[in-house]
Amino acid sequence: MCVPIGCLLSGVLTTPVGRRRSMQVICFPLAASWLTFNFAKEVWHVYLALSITGLCGGLVEAPVLSYVAEITTPRLRGMLSVSSTLSLTFGILLEFVIGSVLHWRTVALISVAPPVLSFILLCFMPESPHWLIMRNKIQQAQKSLAWLRGWTTFDAVKEEFDAMCLSHRVSRKTGAINEAFDGSVSDVNTKSFVDQPTSFFKEKLANSKNFIKKSFLWPLAMVSFIYFLANFTGSWTLQTYAVKIFGTLNSPMDKYHATILLGLVEFIGCLVCVFFVRLCGKRVMAFVSICAVGICGIVVGTYAYTNDIRYLQLNDAANASATPTIDSHNWVPLVFLIILAFVHHCGLKPLPWILIGEIYSHNTRATGCGISSAVSYLFGFLANKLFLDMIKSMTISGTYWFYAAISFVGCLVLYFILPETEGRSLQEISDHFAGDARLDNKFRRKLNEGESDRDTDLSKVNSISIS
């Protein structure tokens, strides 16, 4: 429960501090929490370390997701946004593996390395150019964008940078171009586009109004629904209760080895998503993933029903002495649960994490990412907490049939509410959710002839009517 608290705070802290600096600061308490695990002498030491780890896990959501969305081009944004889920899944798999061969204190000590290494590597990374522009640090933003586009010169990215500045100016003026700005792109590099000085409280009040607009509430509702689907279709609870589920369903292989296999296929599923999201688009990946999850849920539920397996065996002693054997049917739940985990991580699992870096406007992105992440972990907490009660009341078969029903209903709802954002600029996506334009559901496999790979189309910005 510390994770959603960290998520809610992350958006608030990321905006004034900066994306990169926020990630660096979080590395310190995260490393300290793993050291606390290693040297723990009392039970409360473990709880303290666990709470700090959860808080840091939440705090890092907004800066990571905002940073990845803001530094990438539309052509690569979907692919690189999946990398956060890919890294998370790889970390889980790594902990599964080293935890099966090393003492838990040694595992905790090894886990100090990633935050320390992250802090060092982030020293060589520039801040997000979008955040720098929002802070009116124009020269630093120029250098940052040139570095991020392959250590090139500013002249090579001048057009993209000018468009980026214009998009921020338009968002600040709610669609109107300031009269002090004469429309010349070169002026963006030299003129400040911060409005006349206002009081701190007036500025905060003006910013807070962005969070009650359709451009924020609509994407928040959509991504919250997708998080609900991701957590209440069976994969999340499978990851949590994997050992118990495999043991109860008489897995033909050792339940701990099956759990490691589960982590491996989840990682492979994310890896598949990284490459196929550019080839198929987000909508197709989501529909195929959620329908396949539903089919797997039906098969697992039917197996449990036909074999009269009603409840989860929580007592390890109940099947500790049983030797895994293969009969004519007990391979069915193992295979389909593994497939469920694979297809879930091919589309439905990483989808909302990709979207939350794209669907919010510049002014609300960091806070939106934090709130959305908090919603995800709250749903995950509820899914895990309700799982055992659902099995008690509906049995294993009823629970997985219920998950399947949610999957198919969710697929139908997503068909109408989920736009195709792959290959689209951040400005196009923001205009769609603000109601100023509408994205079609066609997947843009490649840029049209004469169209540059940048986040904002200058012609569209310059053609915005003054309200």
UniProtKB/TrEMBL annotation:
In its keyword annotation, does this UniProt entry include Transmembrane? yes
One Pfam family recorded for the sequence? Sugar_tr
Would the keyword Transmembrane helix be found if you checked this record's keyword annotation?
Answer: yes
Instruction: Give the UniProt entry's GO cellular component terms.
Output: plasma membrane
Do you know which InterPro entries this protein is assigned to?
Answer: MFS_dom, MFS_sugar_transport-like, MFS_trans_sf, MFS_Trehalose_Transporter, Sugar_transporter_CS
Molecular-function annotations in GO: transmembrane transporter activity
Segments spanning the bilayer are 46-68, 80-101, 107-125, 216-236, 256-277, 284-305, 331-348, 369-388, 400-418
Q: Which UniProt keywords apply?
A: Cell membrane, Membrane, Sugar transport, Transmembrane, Transmembrane helix, Transport
- Places the protein is found: Cell membrane
Question: Residue limits of the Major facilitator superfamily (MFS) profile domain?
Answer: 1-422
Where is the major localization of this protein? membrane
Entry membrane topology: Multi-pass membrane protein
Q: How is this protein named in the record?
A: Major facilitator superfamily (MFS) profile domain-containing protein
Which species?
Photinus pyralis (Common eastern firefly)
